[in-house]
Amino acid sequence: SDGSIRLHQMTSEYPLMQWNDSTNGQPIIALQWALTRPSVFFVLDASSNIYIWDLLENDLLPVAKQTIPSENVVTMALLGEPEKTNGLLGIALAKESGQIDIQYVKKKWALP
Question: Where in this chain does the entry annotate a coiled-coil region (predicted)?
Answer without folding.
Answer: none
